[in-house]
Amino acid sequence: xxxxxxxxxxxxxxxxxxxxxxxxxxxxxxxxxxxxxxxxxxxxxxxxxxxxxxxxxxxxxxxxxxxxxxxxxxxxxxxxxxxxxxxxxxxxxxxxxxxxxxxxxxxxxxxxxxxxxxxxxxxxxxxxxxxxxxxxxxxxxxxxxxxxxxxxxxxxxxxxxxxxxxxxxxxxxxxxxxxxxxxxxxxxxxxxxxxxxxxxxxxxxxxxxxxxxxxxxxxxxxxxxxxxxxxxxxxxxxxxxxxxxxxxxxxxxxxxxxxxxxxxxxxxxxxxxxxxxxxxxxxxxxxxxxxxxxxxxxxxxxxxxxxxxxxxxxxxxxxxxxxxxxxxxxxxxxxxxxxxxxxxxxxxxxxxxxxxxxxxxxxxxxxxxxxxxxxxxxxxxxxxxxxxxxxxxxx
Length: 395
Ligand SMILES: Cc1cc2nc3c(=O)[nH]c(=O)nc-3n(C[C@H](O)[C@H](O)[C@H](O)COP(=O)(O)OP(=O)(O)OC[C@H]3O[C@@H](n4cnc5c(N)ncnc54)[C@H](O)[C@@H]3O)c2cc1C
Description:
With 395 residues, the protein is α+β, with helices and mostly antiparallel strands. The protein has helices spanning 6-17, 50-65, 67-70, 86-91, 93-98, 108-114, 138-151, 185-193, 221-227, 292-306, 350-367, 381-384, and strands at residues 23-25, 42-43, 77-81, 104-106, 126-130, 134-135, 155-157, 160-167, 172-178, 204-210, 213-215, 235-245, 256-258, 264-268, 271-276, 314-325, 332-337, 340-344. The longest helix is centred in the last third of the chain and has 18 residues, at 350-367.
Protein backbone atom coordinates (compact mmCIF):
# COMPACT_ATOMS: atom_id res chain seq x y z
CA UNK A 1 0.00 0.00 0.00
CA UNK A 2 1.24 3.49 -0.78
CA UNK A 3 -0.12 6.03 1.72
CA UNK A 4 -0.82 5.42 5.41
CA UNK A 5 -3.52 7.98 6.09
CA UNK A 6 -6.89 6.97 7.47
CA UNK A 7 -7.79 5.12 4.24
CA UNK A 8 -4.50 3.24 3.87
CA UNK A 9 -4.61 2.33 7.57
CA UNK A 10 -8.20 1.07 7.28
CA UNK A 11 -7.44 -1.01 4.17
CA UNK A 12 -4.38 -2.44 5.96
CA UNK A 13 -6.53 -3.45 8.93
CA UNK A 14 -9.12 -5.06 6.67
CA UNK A 15 -6.42 -6.95 4.72
CA UNK A 16 -4.80 -8.13 7.95
CA UNK A 17 -8.21 -9.47 9.07
CA UNK A 18 -8.27 -11.48 5.84
CA UNK A 19 -4.74 -12.84 6.34
CA UNK A 20 -3.11 -10.80 3.55
CA UNK A 21 0.48 -9.74 4.31
CA UNK A 22 0.77 -6.01 3.81
CA UNK A 23 3.42 -3.30 4.01
CA UNK A 24 2.16 0.29 4.16
CA UNK A 25 4.61 2.93 2.92
CA UNK A 26 4.48 6.61 3.75
CA UNK A 27 6.92 9.50 3.52
CA UNK A 28 5.60 10.75 6.85
CA UNK A 29 3.74 8.30 9.05
CA UNK A 30 2.95 11.10 11.49
CA UNK A 31 0.84 12.58 8.67
CA UNK A 32 1.83 16.24 9.08
CA UNK A 33 0.35 17.21 5.69
CA UNK A 34 -2.15 14.39 5.36
CA UNK A 35 -5.84 15.23 5.14
CA UNK A 36 -6.42 12.68 7.88
CA UNK A 37 -4.73 15.11 10.30
CA UNK A 38 -6.44 18.25 9.04
CA UNK A 39 -10.13 17.49 8.82
CA UNK A 40 -13.20 18.47 10.82
CA UNK A 41 -14.02 14.99 12.18
CA UNK A 42 -17.59 15.02 10.85
CA UNK A 43 -19.38 11.70 10.34
CA UNK A 44 -22.74 11.51 8.57
CA UNK A 45 -24.66 9.33 6.14
CA UNK A 46 -27.03 11.95 4.73
CA UNK A 47 -25.88 11.60 1.12
CA UNK A 48 -27.73 11.36 -2.16
CA UNK A 49 -26.24 8.19 -3.60
CA UNK A 50 -26.96 4.72 -2.17
CA UNK A 51 -23.30 3.67 -2.25
CA UNK A 52 -22.24 6.73 -0.24
CA UNK A 53 -25.06 6.33 2.27
CA UNK A 54 -24.33 2.62 2.68
CA UNK A 55 -20.55 2.98 3.12
CA UNK A 56 -21.18 5.68 5.74
CA UNK A 57 -23.85 3.62 7.54
CA UNK A 58 -21.54 0.60 7.67
CA UNK A 59 -18.77 2.80 9.00
CA UNK A 60 -21.05 4.39 11.62
CA UNK A 61 -22.14 0.95 12.83
CA UNK A 62 -18.47 0.05 13.31
CA UNK A 63 -17.62 3.35 15.04
CA UNK A 64 -20.48 2.69 17.48
CA UNK A 65 -18.70 -0.50 18.58
CA UNK A 66 -15.47 1.38 19.38
CA UNK A 67 -16.98 4.74 20.33
CA UNK A 68 -14.93 5.35 23.48
CA UNK A 69 -11.64 4.42 21.81
CA UNK A 70 -12.15 6.87 18.94
CA UNK A 71 -14.14 9.65 20.62
CA UNK A 72 -17.28 9.04 18.55
CA UNK A 73 -19.99 11.42 19.77
CA UNK A 74 -23.37 10.84 18.12
CA UNK A 75 -24.83 14.27 18.74
CA UNK A 76 -26.25 14.53 15.26
CA UNK A 77 -25.91 16.79 12.24
CA UNK A 78 -28.22 19.79 12.03
CA UNK A 79 -28.27 21.05 8.44
CA UNK A 80 -30.03 24.28 7.55
CA UNK A 81 -31.39 24.86 4.04
CA UNK A 82 -32.62 27.87 2.11
CA UNK A 83 -35.55 28.04 -0.33
CA UNK A 84 -33.46 26.76 -3.22
CA UNK A 85 -31.77 23.79 -1.52
CA UNK A 86 -34.59 22.64 0.81
CA UNK A 87 -36.62 20.79 -1.88
CA UNK A 88 -33.46 18.93 -2.99
CA UNK A 89 -32.73 17.90 0.59
CA UNK A 90 -36.31 16.63 1.02
CA UNK A 91 -36.07 14.52 -2.15
CA UNK A 92 -33.45 12.29 -0.52
CA UNK A 93 -34.97 11.77 2.93
CA UNK A 94 -36.89 8.62 1.96
CA UNK A 95 -33.81 7.02 0.40
CA UNK A 96 -31.73 7.78 3.50
CA UNK A 97 -34.43 6.32 5.78
CA UNK A 98 -34.91 3.26 3.58
CA UNK A 99 -31.19 2.55 3.80
CA UNK A 100 -31.45 2.58 7.58
CA UNK A 101 -30.36 6.10 8.44
CA UNK A 102 -32.75 8.04 10.69
CA UNK A 103 -33.37 11.65 9.71
CA UNK A 104 -35.98 14.25 10.70
CA UNK A 105 -37.25 17.25 8.76
CA UNK A 106 -37.61 20.42 10.89
CA UNK A 107 -39.39 23.72 10.36
CA UNK A 108 -37.50 26.94 11.10
CA UNK A 109 -39.52 27.32 14.34
CA UNK A 110 -38.46 23.80 15.42
CA UNK A 111 -34.83 24.67 14.70
CA UNK A 112 -35.15 27.70 16.96
CA UNK A 113 -36.70 25.59 19.75
CA UNK A 114 -33.99 22.93 19.58
CA UNK A 115 -31.05 25.29 19.24
CA UNK A 116 -32.00 28.58 20.89
CA UNK A 117 -28.65 30.07 19.83
CA UNK A 118 -30.02 30.08 16.25
CA UNK A 119 -32.14 33.19 16.71
CA UNK A 120 -32.05 34.68 13.20
CA UNK A 121 -34.19 32.67 10.82
CA UNK A 122 -33.90 34.85 7.69
CA UNK A 123 -33.55 32.76 4.54
CA UNK A 124 -34.15 29.51 6.41
CA UNK A 125 -36.68 27.24 4.66
CA UNK A 126 -36.18 24.04 6.66
CA UNK A 127 -33.59 21.78 8.25
CA UNK A 128 -32.69 18.15 8.70
CA UNK A 129 -31.50 16.54 11.88
CA UNK A 130 -29.82 13.13 11.69
CA UNK A 131 -29.28 11.88 15.26
CA UNK A 132 -26.98 8.93 14.45
CA UNK A 133 -24.41 11.25 12.84
CA UNK A 134 -21.81 13.19 14.76
CA UNK A 135 -18.15 13.77 15.39
CA UNK A 136 -15.14 11.50 15.73
CA UNK A 137 -11.48 11.91 16.61
CA UNK A 138 -9.85 11.06 13.25
CA UNK A 139 -6.41 10.63 14.76
CA UNK A 140 -7.63 8.06 17.27
CA UNK A 141 -9.53 6.28 14.49
CA UNK A 142 -6.42 6.09 12.30
CA UNK A 143 -4.43 4.79 15.28
CA UNK A 144 -7.11 2.18 15.93
CA UNK A 145 -6.80 0.91 12.35
CA UNK A 146 -3.00 0.87 12.55
CA UNK A 147 -2.87 -0.99 15.87
CA UNK A 148 -5.26 -3.65 14.58
CA UNK A 149 -3.45 -3.88 11.25
CA UNK A 150 -0.09 -4.30 12.99
CA UNK A 151 -1.51 -6.93 15.35
CA UNK A 152 -2.65 -8.83 12.25
CA UNK A 153 0.83 -8.73 10.66
CA UNK A 154 0.88 -5.48 8.65
CA UNK A 155 4.06 -3.39 8.67
CA UNK A 156 4.01 0.41 8.52
CA UNK A 157 7.23 1.79 6.99
CA UNK A 158 8.09 5.43 7.60
CA UNK A 159 10.09 7.98 5.55
CA UNK A 160 9.56 6.09 2.29
CA UNK A 161 8.65 8.04 -0.81
CA UNK A 162 7.48 6.18 -3.91
CA UNK A 163 8.94 7.81 -7.04
CA UNK A 164 8.16 5.36 -9.82
CA UNK A 165 6.69 1.94 -10.48
CA UNK A 166 6.92 -0.93 -12.92
CA UNK A 167 4.07 -3.42 -13.22
CA UNK A 168 5.19 -6.79 -14.64
CA UNK A 169 3.11 -9.86 -15.41
CA UNK A 170 3.89 -11.43 -12.02
CA UNK A 171 4.79 -8.55 -9.69
CA UNK A 172 4.88 -4.82 -9.05
CA UNK A 173 8.23 -3.09 -8.51
CA UNK A 174 8.17 0.17 -6.60
CA UNK A 175 11.11 2.53 -6.98
CA UNK A 176 11.38 4.27 -3.64
CA UNK A 177 13.61 6.58 -1.64
CA UNK A 178 14.13 6.30 2.08
CA UNK A 179 15.02 9.40 4.04
CA UNK A 180 17.60 8.71 6.82
CA UNK A 181 15.64 10.86 9.29
CA UNK A 182 12.18 12.45 9.37
CA UNK A 183 12.01 15.33 6.90
CA UNK A 184 11.89 18.82 8.37
CA UNK A 185 8.58 20.62 7.96
CA UNK A 186 10.09 22.74 5.16
CA UNK A 187 11.53 19.76 3.28
CA UNK A 188 8.25 17.87 3.60
CA UNK A 189 6.30 20.82 2.20
CA UNK A 190 8.83 21.17 -0.65
CA UNK A 191 8.54 17.49 -1.53
CA UNK A 192 4.76 17.27 -1.22
CA UNK A 193 3.87 20.54 -2.95
CA UNK A 194 6.67 20.64 -5.54
CA UNK A 195 6.78 19.24 -9.01
CA UNK A 196 7.54 15.62 -9.83
CA UNK A 197 11.29 16.12 -10.17
CA UNK A 198 11.73 17.61 -6.71
CA UNK A 199 12.54 14.43 -4.80
CA UNK A 200 16.02 15.49 -3.64
CA UNK A 201 14.94 15.41 0.01
CA UNK A 202 13.40 11.97 -0.16
CA UNK A 203 16.63 9.99 0.50
CA UNK A 204 18.48 6.93 -0.82
CA UNK A 205 16.89 4.96 -3.69
CA UNK A 206 15.88 1.31 -3.38
CA UNK A 207 13.33 -1.07 -4.84
CA UNK A 208 10.40 -2.94 -3.26
CA UNK A 209 8.50 -5.83 -4.85
CA UNK A 210 4.92 -6.87 -4.19
CA UNK A 211 2.23 -9.09 -5.69
CA UNK A 212 -0.10 -6.11 -5.83
CA UNK A 213 -0.22 -2.48 -4.77
CA UNK A 214 -3.00 -0.22 -3.50
CA UNK A 215 -2.85 3.54 -4.02
CA UNK A 216 -4.21 5.28 -0.93
CA UNK A 217 -2.36 8.56 -1.25
CA UNK A 218 -5.23 11.00 -0.77
CA UNK A 219 -4.63 14.36 -2.39
CA UNK A 220 -1.39 13.07 -3.99
CA UNK A 221 -3.14 10.25 -5.82
CA UNK A 222 -3.05 12.10 -9.15
CA UNK A 223 0.78 12.10 -8.95
CA UNK A 224 0.98 8.48 -7.87
CA UNK A 225 -1.47 7.30 -10.53
CA UNK A 226 0.72 9.00 -13.13
CA UNK A 227 3.78 6.99 -12.10
CA UNK A 228 1.73 3.88 -12.89
CA UNK A 229 0.73 5.37 -16.23
CA UNK A 230 -2.89 5.62 -15.04
CA UNK A 231 -5.32 8.43 -15.69
CA UNK A 232 -6.25 10.67 -12.79
CA UNK A 233 -9.69 12.23 -12.66
CA UNK A 234 -9.39 14.25 -9.45
CA UNK A 235 -7.89 17.49 -8.19
CA UNK A 236 -6.43 18.49 -4.84
CA UNK A 237 -8.17 21.60 -3.45
CA UNK A 238 -7.31 23.67 -0.39
CA UNK A 239 -9.83 23.72 2.45
CA UNK A 240 -9.39 25.94 5.51
CA UNK A 241 -10.62 25.53 9.06
CA UNK A 242 -10.37 28.01 11.87
CA UNK A 243 -10.52 27.74 15.63
CA UNK A 244 -12.74 30.37 17.18
CA UNK A 245 -12.28 31.72 20.66
CA UNK A 246 -15.77 31.72 22.10
CA UNK A 247 -16.27 32.70 25.71
CA UNK A 248 -19.93 33.50 25.32
CA UNK A 249 -21.72 30.47 23.95
CA UNK A 250 -21.24 26.76 24.46
CA UNK A 251 -22.18 24.48 21.58
CA UNK A 252 -21.02 21.31 23.38
CA UNK A 253 -24.56 19.90 23.48
CA UNK A 254 -24.75 19.86 19.66
CA UNK A 255 -22.92 17.90 16.99
CA UNK A 256 -22.16 19.48 13.61
CA UNK A 257 -24.24 22.46 12.51
CA UNK A 258 -24.22 23.49 8.84
CA UNK A 259 -25.71 26.86 7.95
CA UNK A 260 -27.52 27.81 4.74
CA UNK A 261 -24.48 29.99 3.96
CA UNK A 262 -22.20 26.93 3.82
CA UNK A 263 -20.32 27.65 7.04
CA UNK A 264 -20.12 24.57 9.29
CA UNK A 265 -19.07 24.41 12.90
CA UNK A 266 -18.94 22.38 16.09
CA UNK A 267 -17.63 22.65 19.58
CA UNK A 268 -13.95 21.72 19.89
CA UNK A 269 -12.82 21.73 23.52
CA UNK A 270 -12.69 25.35 24.64
CA UNK A 271 -13.09 26.53 21.04
CA UNK A 272 -15.41 26.27 18.10
CA UNK A 273 -14.05 24.62 14.98
CA UNK A 274 -15.52 26.34 11.92
CA UNK A 275 -14.96 25.84 8.22
CA UNK A 276 -16.09 27.25 4.94
CA UNK A 277 -15.19 26.21 1.40
CA UNK A 278 -15.20 29.15 -1.05
CA UNK A 279 -16.66 27.74 -4.28
CA UNK A 280 -14.05 29.43 -6.48
CA UNK A 281 -10.94 27.90 -4.81
CA UNK A 282 -8.56 26.85 -7.61
CA UNK A 283 -7.03 23.35 -7.57
CA UNK A 284 -3.54 22.97 -6.14
CA UNK A 285 -1.56 21.65 -3.19
CA UNK A 286 -1.62 24.86 -1.18
CA UNK A 287 -1.19 24.58 2.60
CA UNK A 288 -1.15 28.31 3.36
CA UNK A 289 -3.74 29.32 5.92
CA UNK A 290 -5.16 32.81 5.38
CA UNK A 291 -5.46 33.43 9.14
CA UNK A 292 -7.51 36.28 10.62
CA UNK A 293 -8.80 37.51 7.21
CA UNK A 294 -10.31 34.05 6.58
CA UNK A 295 -12.16 34.30 9.88
CA UNK A 296 -13.22 37.93 9.38
CA UNK A 297 -14.30 37.59 5.73
CA UNK A 298 -15.72 34.09 5.52
CA UNK A 299 -16.58 32.69 8.96
CA UNK A 300 -17.64 35.41 11.36
CA UNK A 301 -20.13 37.29 9.12
CA UNK A 302 -21.96 34.05 8.29
CA UNK A 303 -22.15 32.88 11.90
CA UNK A 304 -23.20 36.29 13.20
CA UNK A 305 -25.89 36.59 10.51
CA UNK A 306 -27.47 33.41 11.90
CA UNK A 307 -26.74 33.77 15.65
CA UNK A 308 -26.50 37.06 17.49
CA UNK A 309 -24.55 35.33 20.28
CA UNK A 310 -21.58 35.12 17.91
CA UNK A 311 -20.97 38.87 17.99
CA UNK A 312 -17.95 38.72 20.28
CA UNK A 313 -16.25 35.67 18.81
CA UNK A 314 -12.54 36.03 18.07
CA UNK A 315 -10.12 34.26 15.75
CA UNK A 316 -7.83 31.87 17.66
CA UNK A 317 -5.98 29.95 14.92
CA UNK A 318 -6.49 27.55 12.09
CA UNK A 319 -4.94 25.56 9.28
CA UNK A 320 -5.31 24.52 5.66
CA UNK A 321 -5.50 20.98 4.34
CA UNK A 322 -6.43 19.30 1.09
CA UNK A 323 -9.61 17.74 -0.25
CA UNK A 324 -9.18 15.42 -3.22
CA UNK A 325 -12.23 16.08 -5.34
CA UNK A 326 -13.44 13.80 -8.13
CA UNK A 327 -15.64 15.05 -11.01
CA UNK A 328 -18.83 13.66 -9.39
CA UNK A 329 -17.65 14.27 -5.81
CA UNK A 330 -17.68 10.56 -4.96
CA UNK A 331 -14.62 8.49 -4.09
CA UNK A 332 -12.78 6.28 -6.57
CA UNK A 333 -12.41 2.76 -5.20
CA UNK A 334 -11.59 -0.45 -7.02
CA UNK A 335 -9.09 -2.09 -9.34
CA UNK A 336 -7.26 0.49 -11.44
CA UNK A 337 -5.23 -1.99 -13.55
CA UNK A 338 -3.93 -5.55 -13.18
CA UNK A 339 -2.22 -5.76 -9.74
CA UNK A 340 -3.03 -2.11 -9.00
CA UNK A 341 -5.89 -1.10 -6.67
CA UNK A 342 -7.00 2.33 -5.52
CA UNK A 343 -9.07 4.11 -2.85
CA UNK A 344 -8.86 7.90 -2.98
CA UNK A 345 -10.70 11.06 -4.06
CA UNK A 346 -13.09 10.90 -1.11
CA UNK A 347 -14.09 14.52 -1.81
CA UNK A 348 -14.37 15.47 1.88
CA UNK A 349 -15.78 12.12 3.02
CA UNK A 350 -12.69 10.04 3.80
CA UNK A 351 -13.00 9.84 7.57
CA UNK A 352 -16.68 8.96 7.60
CA UNK A 353 -16.28 6.30 4.88
CA UNK A 354 -12.92 4.94 5.95
CA UNK A 355 -14.12 1.75 7.61
CA UNK A 356 -16.57 0.73 4.85
CA UNK A 357 -14.19 1.66 2.04
CA UNK A 358 -11.31 -0.22 3.69
CA UNK A 359 -13.39 -3.35 4.07
CA UNK A 360 -14.66 -3.09 0.48
CA UNK A 361 -11.21 -2.73 -1.08
CA UNK A 362 -9.83 -5.54 1.08
CA UNK A 363 -12.62 -7.84 -0.13
CA UNK A 364 -11.79 -7.01 -3.72
CA UNK A 365 -8.06 -7.61 -3.17
CA UNK A 366 -8.36 -10.74 -1.02
CA UNK A 367 -11.43 -12.39 -2.54
CA UNK A 368 -11.43 -10.94 -6.05
CA UNK A 369 -14.94 -9.51 -5.65
CA UNK A 370 -17.16 -7.56 -3.29
CA UNK A 371 -18.99 -9.73 -0.78
CA UNK A 372 -20.51 -7.79 2.15
CA UNK A 373 -19.23 -4.30 1.28
CA UNK A 374 -20.10 -3.33 -2.28
CA UNK A 375 -18.22 -0.34 -3.67
CA UNK A 376 -18.59 -1.32 -7.33
CA UNK A 377 -20.42 1.93 -8.16
CA UNK A 378 -17.21 3.79 -7.23
CA UNK A 379 -15.02 2.13 -9.89
CA UNK A 380 -12.99 4.40 -12.18
CA UNK A 381 -14.73 3.02 -15.27
CA UNK A 382 -17.85 5.03 -14.36
CA UNK A 383 -16.28 8.15 -15.84
CA UNK A 384 -15.68 6.50 -19.23
CA UNK A 385 -19.15 4.92 -19.17
CA UNK A 386 -20.73 8.25 -18.26
CA UNK A 387 -22.31 6.78 -15.10
CA UNK A 388 -21.39 9.42 -12.51
CA UNK A 389 -22.20 8.92 -8.82
CA UNK A 390 -23.19 12.52 -8.44
CA UNK A 391 -23.19 13.97 -4.95
CA UNK A 392 -24.49 17.31 -3.81
CA UNK A 393 -22.26 20.31 -3.53
CA UNK A 394 -21.26 20.11 0.09
CA UNK A 395 -18.80 21.34 2.66
C1 LIG B 1 -10.35 20.97 6.05
C2 LIG B 1 -10.83 19.56 5.84
C3 LIG B 1 -12.00 19.14 6.47
C4 LIG B 1 -12.46 17.83 6.27
N1 LIG B 1 -13.54 17.41 6.98
C5 LIG B 1 -13.94 16.12 6.89
C6 LIG B 1 -14.99 15.64 7.71
O1 LIG B 1 -15.56 16.37 8.50
N2 LIG B 1 -15.34 14.33 7.58
C7 LIG B 1 -14.72 13.49 6.67
O2 LIG B 1 -15.11 12.31 6.58
N3 LIG B 1 -13.71 13.93 5.90
C8 LIG B 1 -13.30 15.21 5.99
N4 LIG B 1 -12.25 15.65 5.24
C9 LIG B 1 -11.67 14.75 4.23
C10 LIG B 1 -10.79 13.69 4.85
O3 LIG B 1 -9.89 14.30 5.75
C11 LIG B 1 -10.05 12.95 3.74
O4 LIG B 1 -10.97 12.46 2.78
C12 LIG B 1 -9.26 11.77 4.29
O5 LIG B 1 -8.46 12.15 5.39
C13 LIG B 1 -8.39 11.18 3.20
O6 LIG B 1 -7.58 10.19 3.80
P1 LIG B 1 -6.48 9.47 2.94
O7 LIG B 1 -5.89 8.42 3.78
O8 LIG B 1 -7.03 9.12 1.60
O9 LIG B 1 -5.41 10.63 2.61
P2 LIG B 1 -4.32 11.30 3.57
O10 LIG B 1 -4.75 11.32 4.97
O11 LIG B 1 -3.94 12.60 2.96
O12 LIG B 1 -3.09 10.30 3.48
C14 LIG B 1 -2.34 10.15 2.29
C15 LIG B 1 -0.93 9.77 2.70
O13 LIG B 1 -0.20 9.45 1.51
C16 LIG B 1 1.16 9.83 1.72
N5 LIG B 1 1.79 9.94 0.40
C17 LIG B 1 1.36 10.70 -0.64
N6 LIG B 1 2.18 10.51 -1.71
C18 LIG B 1 3.13 9.61 -1.34
C19 LIG B 1 4.24 9.01 -2.00
N7 LIG B 1 4.52 9.26 -3.29
N8 LIG B 1 5.02 8.14 -1.31
C20 LIG B 1 4.73 7.87 0.00
N9 LIG B 1 3.70 8.40 0.68
C21 LIG B 1 2.90 9.27 0.02
C22 LIG B 1 1.04 11.14 2.47
O14 LIG B 1 2.22 11.41 3.20
C23 LIG B 1 -0.15 10.89 3.39
O15 LIG B 1 0.23 10.47 4.69
C24 LIG B 1 -11.75 16.94 5.40
C25 LIG B 1 -10.57 17.36 4.79
C26 LIG B 1 -10.11 18.66 5.01
C27 LIG B 1 -8.83 19.08 4.34
